Every structure is written in C-alpha cells, then in structure tokens.
C-alpha cells in the first residue's frame, strides 16, 4: 500500500524534475509552482510504446490498489495543471486548457475539493469568478503519485540518462 508522504520529508517533486514543493507546511496554498531551469523530463523517445504503456498500467494499478483516492484521468489532469502550471487557475481557464466544458471542470473540482486537494477562493479581480488554490494535502497526493512513478520506472531510465532537447 502507498502511504501519504510526510510533508516535511526530504523527497520532493523537484527530485522528479517537477516544481519544487518541499517544505509543504510553509507553502501558501496559492503560491505558483515554478519549473526549475534544469528540469529534464523523461522524453517519449526514451521509452518504447510497449514500455510506456506498461509503465502507465503499473502506476495506475498501484494507485488504485493503494490507499490513495482513486482519481479519474480528468481529475488527475486538473490537479496537475493547478499544481504544476502557472496560475491563476479558474474554471474557465481549466476548461480551455483541457478542451472540455466548464460543467465538466466543475465536477472534477467538486471531487478534488472533497479530498481537500484544492480549494475554491474568490477571485479578487473578478467577483463572478473563483480561483483554485493549492493545499498541503494536494501536494502530498502528488508526492505520493510521483513516488509511484519513480518506483515503477524501468531500471536505467532516469533524468540523468535522458538527453536534453
């Protein structure tokens, strides 16, 4: 079973080439995530189609079989966009980004807020709109999910072995 990551643990999302989210308790929920200059994501050319699908299957099975909430692909996409891309994030901006309706995004946000992975807040620039804020629980979920990916990653495929583009 996968356990939620300790918010003060040394392992952070930055270890995987993702935005630094260490020191979770000190991060303001609305602090924008920034991708490091030296972030080197795994390139698709490094994994065959069969290996890429096997990795996705193994990570998906591990997340469903573990004690993490079972998020849909859409909910996971919304969560990752909110945490890993510059904001502010609104229902409208997420709907445009994911090419779905605002109603679809609202349902995903409802589920994510039920887990306290994101919070709704009034948009100070537009009283008719809401913005989405990050939470320590959301950071912990993504750390645990990143840990699953790291554990399931085939031996020898690391950021250090992938070429820069």
How would you characterize the overall build of this protein?
The structure is a single chain. The chain is mainly α. It has a domain of 109 residues: Winged helix-like DNA-binding domain superfamily/Winged helix DNA-binding domain (Arc Repressor Mutant, subunit A), CATH 1.10.10. Helices cover 41% and strands 9% of the residues. The protein has 5 helices and 2 strands. The protein has a two-stranded antiparallel ribbon. α1 crosses α5 and α3 crosses α4. The protein is elongated. The N terminus and C terminus are likely disordered.
Any descriptors?
Arc Repressor Mutant, subunit A; about 160 residues; elongated; two-stranded antiparallel ribbon; 2 strands
State Rg: 16 Å
Helix coverage percent: 40-55%
Q: Would you tell me which CATH topology of the domain at 46-154 applies?
A: Arc Repressor Mutant, subunit A
Taken as a percent bin, the fraction of beta residues is 5-15%
Provide the residue-averaged pLDDT.
Answer: 75
Number of strands: 2
Structural class by sheet pairing and helices: mainly alpha
């Amino acid at each position: 079973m996968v356990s939620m990551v300790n918010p003060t643990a040394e392992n952070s999302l930055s270890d995987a080439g993702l935005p630094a989210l260490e020191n979770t308790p000190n991060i303001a929920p609305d602090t924008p995530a920034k991708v490091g200059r030296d972030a080197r994501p795994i390139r698709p050319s490094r994994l065959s189609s069969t290996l890429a699908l096997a990795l996705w299957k193994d990570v998906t099975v591990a997340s469903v079989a573990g004690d993490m909430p079972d998020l849909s692909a859409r909910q996971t996409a919304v969560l990752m966009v909110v945490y890993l891309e510059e904001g502010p994030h609104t229902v409208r901006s997420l709907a445009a980004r994911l090419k779905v309706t605002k109603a679809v995004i609202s349902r995903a946000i409802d589920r994510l807020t039920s887990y306290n992975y994101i919070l709704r807040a009034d948009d100070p620039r537009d009283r008719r709109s809401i913005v989405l804020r990050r939470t320590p629980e959301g950071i912990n979920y993504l750390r645990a999910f990143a840990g699953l990916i790291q554990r399931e990653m085939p031996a020898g495929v690391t950021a250090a072995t992938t070429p820069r583009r």
